[in-house]
Structure formats: C-alpha cells, structure tokens
Amino acid sequence: FGFAAIGVGGGAVALLTDGNASKASAADATATLNIPDLLEGTSSDGTVTYTLTAKTGTGEVLSGVTSTTAGYNGSYLGPTMKWTKGDTVLLNITNTLGDDTTVHFHGAHIPPKMDGGPQNAFADGETWSPTFEILDEAKTLWYHPHALGTTAEQVVKGLAGLIIVEDDSDVSAALPSEYGVDDIPIILQCLAVDSAGDIKYDAAGYRLAGVTFPVLVNGTNVDATTLGFTATKKRTRFRVLNASPSDIMTVQRSDGGTLTQIATDQGYLTEATEVTTIRLVAGARAEFVLDLEDAVTLQAVVTTGWIRGGSGTYDFLTVTPDATDTPADLPSALNTITRYDTSDFTARTITLGQNGATMLINGSAGTTMAGMAMISTTLDSEEIWTITNSTQLEHSFHLHDVPYQVIEINGEEPTGVNLGWFDTFEVVGGGSIKIAMKFTDFTDDTYMYMLHCHLLQHEDEGMMASLMVTES
Ligand code: C2O
Ligand code: CU
C-alpha cells in the first residue's frame, strides 16, 4: 500500500510495534508519525468483509517499562477502516481478550443489533459478525468496546480505531484522500500509567501516588518527543480523534496560525472555516487541512483532566512539506446544513447527575441494563433535548446513531464550527446545552440506543441511559 515503512526512534516510545511500525536504531535523530494500517477488506457480491481480532499484547507507554495493552489485529490501537456510502459491510470480529467485549461503531447510523452497545456483548473465544449498509456520508468515525463496566479499561489499554467514511460527492473528490500520504489520522490520548507500566482506568487508579499522565499520538508517547511527518502534497488533511478516557484535547499551531477546519464529528461544515484552536472533548473528532509552505508544528493542549490535575501543552507533530504541487482552491461550499426550526419539536430534559462516586442520568445509574433510565420515543419524532449538568464536573454528551445540531450552549446560540453536525459535545460543570435531532431514516424495526457521557469512567460509573425508538 501507499505508505512507506514507518521508523520510530529518537527515544520515542511507540506501541504500534507489530503493525506497520518498527523500532528504529538509536541513530535516528527524529521519530516519525505512526500511521495505523489500513484494513483491507475483501469484496464480493456487493459486500465488503473485514476481519478483526481483539487481543491483548504488550508495549511501552513509558520508555523501558512494559505495559499490558490490547488492540485490534495488533498490540495497540486498531487498523483504520474505510467504508463507502452505499456499500454493505460485514465484520467478523473475534474476541480473544479473556473477557466479554463489544465493538461500537461510534457515530455510525446503523441498526442497534449491528452496533456493539452494552446489550451486545460477546464472550472470549466468540466471533461476532455484524453486517449493515453504510448510510452515512463522508465523515470520520471510530470503533471501540462498550461493554458494561469495562469500557474504560478496554479502551485505555488500546482498543480503538478510526473509520473513514467516503462518499462520491464532488466535495469529497476535491479534498485530499490518500490515506497516510495527504489524509492523515491523528489519534490523541492522555492515559494514566503507574511506574510499573500499569495503565489505570478508574478514579481510584488515577489518584494513586506515582501515576503519570503520558500523551500518546497514534500510539507514540510524545511527552518528550515531537514526531515528524513529511508531506509530499502541499495540501494535507488531518482527521483528529480524541480517544482519551477523560481529558479535553485542543489542537493548535505552535506559531499561532490558523487551521482550516472542514468537518466536525458528523461530516463537513457548510464551508471551510479558519480557526486557531480545535477543542475536542473525549470521543469527539474534527478534520482540518493545512496548505503548507513551511513546516508547521501542531500542539495538543490537554485540559480539564480532573484525573491528571493540571494542563499541559505538547508539541506533538512537525509537518514538513516536500512538495511542489499547487493545490486548487478549496470548494467554496462543503455542505448544506439546514438548521432545524425546533419550534414544533418535542422537548425533553436530560439531567447529568452524581451521587458520590455513582454517576446518573435522570436520577438513575446505568451500571446495569435494568438500572439505567430508559427514554422512549417514536420513529420520525423530532426532538429538542436540554442536557443539564447538575454536577461540577465536565461531561462529554454522546448520543448513538443519530447526528444532532447544537441549538444552545449555556444559554448562548452557537456560532462558527459549532453550527456543524455532532454526536459528542462538551457540557461544562453546572452548564447546559440544547441539542436537536430527528429519529428518521431507519432500516430496522427495533431501536435501542445509548446516550452517555464519553468520559469513560463516568460511563462505567453509571452516566448512561438507553433510548427506545418504537414504531408509532
Ligand atoms: Cu464512543 Cu457509546 O460511545
Ligand atoms: Cu462525564
């Protein structure tokens, strides 16, 4: 495939060691950006079949210290999948973790029985084979486990991968799309690790003495390393996922310049938008392009982090152009987003709460399927939800399957990139947001979805409810 073997050296610690990456000799001056493998599918009769194995492994999150990790088809993270709108995909996913797992296709519009919500766990030794048509337009999704009570543990150990959805629109054709060449995945994570290399995943673990909070980019520790990437096209597209269990990641340029943001969680913005920062809560994605003249260094600012007790700024990637092409102008319009007129929408209130260490939605702890609050609605309903945060903690509000528009943020109307489509959005301590969505365009007849906080330990501690959509 179209990218060269990736060398890693210069003291950087990379966990993607049995995929495309190899540890280079100490003579290497710099470490290069790991690019997760692209998962090749096999096509027949209009169905593309993919094979994934969830497995345990080992790697070095901290230099010289072995950690127990997990990954799909490798020891850490998973390969990137490319799905094409209109195709049918079949995934054969084998669990060798020694524990139940699920695989959730975060942000995909697919029937719930084909999506690994917590009701669809499968055991060690089993293979789960969901199949569905890709209804989504071009966007960046991701996949990760979602079993009750073990989501944080499985994700932080490395079970996460990107999904690129492609479509045949003129806009998609005009944007960089050569994976690993001018279309670059960036998976950001802030983990919690003790000096023995044990990756922590709950509040008790985060607070232990000696735990540090390394920042990883595509599986490489960037605490003391700036990775390098040589761009062979002047225009380079970046798809950024914040796969952290808790922290907010803000991406910016070290020189204070602008990034040209083209997409939020659920696809293209109406137009390319110059921004100086891209703030991603846990679970969120964004896409931007850079038209490179000189080298650009990207920074990640890690904030909130009630787990890590402080913020930090990491120069994680220097992109150096080695290109002579002249990119065409970006399309002047990327998408048509008709803002919902919510005056006739059904209103609902979702309260994010807390009772000691138990996290609640509408007063119920979703630590068991029976215990979680269930919200019922009917097919084709149009709704506006007020998400009220009655805690002083930051939350990241995720709704499965259905993209939403953000109508209000702490009483203010959204502007700029917040006028895009989302599935995961920040709710600050004591704050509130209003979101609007339509439960349309389904291809199945039973619909049990999840809504939850994407701070993974909050989800495991109960901040999750189910949503039942029934035929009216
Ligand atoms: Cu990415 Cu229900 O989660
Ligand atoms: Cu939360």
From TrEMBL:
Reaction it catalyzes: 4 Cu(+) + O2 + 4 H(+) = 4 Cu(2+) + 2 H2O
Alphabetized UniProt keyword annotations: Membrane, Metal-binding, Oxidoreductase, Transmembrane, Transmembrane helix
Residue ranges occupied by any Plastocyanin-like domain in the UniProt entry: 56-169, 339-470
InterPro entries reported for this sequence: Cu-oxidase-like_N, Cu-oxidase_C, Cu-oxidase_fam, Cu_oxidase_Cu_BS, Cupredoxin, TAT_signal
Transmembrane segments: 1-16
EC numbers, comma separated: 1.16.3.4
CDD domains: CuRO_1_CueO_FtsP
Family, as annotated: Belongs to the multicopper oxidase family.
Subunit structure: Monomer.
The protein's name: Multicopper oxidase CueO
Organism: Streptomyces vulcanius
Upper lineage: Bacteria, Bacillati, Actinomycetota, Actinomycetes, Kitasatosporales
